[in-house]
Amino acid sequence: MADTMDTEKQRASAWFRTLRDEIVAAFEGLENSHDTGPFSDMEPGRFDVSETKRASADGSDAGGGLMSVMRGGRVFEKVGVNVSTVYGTLGERAQNAMAARKGIVGMKEDPRFWASGISLVAHMRNPQVPAVHMNTRMFWTPHAWWFGGGSDLNPCLEYHEDTAHFHAVQKQFLDPHGETLYPELKAWADEYFFVPHRGRARGVGGIFMDDRNTGSWEADFALTQDIGRAFLPAFVPLVEKRRPSEFSDADKDAQLVHRGLYAEYNLVYDRGTKFGLETGHDANAVLMSLPPMAKWV
C-alpha cells in the first residue's frame, strides 16, 4: 500500500484534537457546576496542559501531542485527556508483534508507521461516581491501516441503572453503523477488559474494537467518530447524578482497592501502554492512566 493517505491522516488527527477540546471543556464545566455535596466547597479543578514529544533513536522529529491532566479537583481526583500524533519506524520487537498479531507482512522491509489518537482516564474524587476510560485511534503503515478504541465504565460501587445508561448510549451511537455492531463490540470489550489473574472484569464493560479496516476508510472513520461522540452523553449524566452523594469510609476503601485492580490491568495487559513505552513515547503521558492513590489487600 503506497503512502497516499496524507489527507486522511490529517483529518483523523484533527478530529482527535477536536474531541479532546470538547471533553476538556465539559470536564471543567463539571468542576464549575459542582455546588452541592462532598467536596463542593473546594476550588474547581483545572487542566494543566503540556506538550509531549516522542523520542526517536536518531534524534529526528518523531511527533508528539498534548497531555492535559487535572489533579485535585472537586469532582475529578485525577483525570488525563491526551492526544498525540507520532511517526517514525518501528523497532524489531514491534515489527514482530505486528506480524504475529495482525498478520502484516513487509514490516522488516519498510517499518514506517504513523499513529494518532486520544486517550482518557478519569479517577473520581467521590467513590459513588464511576471511573471511566475512553480512547480512539488510527494506525497506519505502508502495508495496512486500521482504527481502534472504545470506552468502558469502571465503578467501584456498581449501580445497575448507571451501567444500563452507559451501554444504552453506546448502542444508540453504534446502531446507525449496523445493528450487529454494538453486541459485537460489547462482547469484545468484555473479553479485552478482563483481568485473567483476578478472574474478573475490571469494570462493567462498554465497547471496544481493534484492527478496524472494512476497506472503506470513510465508513470506519465515521464509526470511530461516533464512538468518540458517545462518550460525553454516556458518562456526564452519571457524574451529575452521583457527585452530590454522601459516602462512607468503607466506600472510599472499596474505591482504592478497585483502583489497584485498574492499575494491574493497565500495567500488565493494556496494549496501548505496552506500545507507547516500547516506541519511545513520553512515559508520563503513557502512564497517565494510573490512579493517584490505590490500595492492595
Automatic annotation (TrEMBL):
GO BP, one annotated term: protoporphyrinogen IX biosynthetic process
InterPro entries assigned to the protein according to its UniProt record, in alphabetical order: Coprogen_oxidase_aer (IPR001260), Coprogen_oxidase_aer_sf (IPR036406)
Pfam families: Coprogen_oxidas
Transmembrane domains' residue ranges: none
Pathway(s): Porphyrin-containing compound metabolism; protoporphyrin-IX biosynthesis; protoporphyrinogen-IX from coproporphyrinogen-III (O2 route): step 1/1
Entry GO MF terms: coproporphyrinogen oxidase activity
GO cellular component: cytoplasm
Keywords per UniProt: Heme biosynthesis, Oxidoreductase, Porphyrin biosynthesis
EC numbers for this chain: 1.3.3.3
Assembly notes: Homodimer.
Family assignment from sequence similarity: Belongs to the aerobic coproporphyrinogen-III oxidase family.
Protein name: coproporphyrinogen oxidase
Organism encoding this protein: Tritonibacter aquimaris
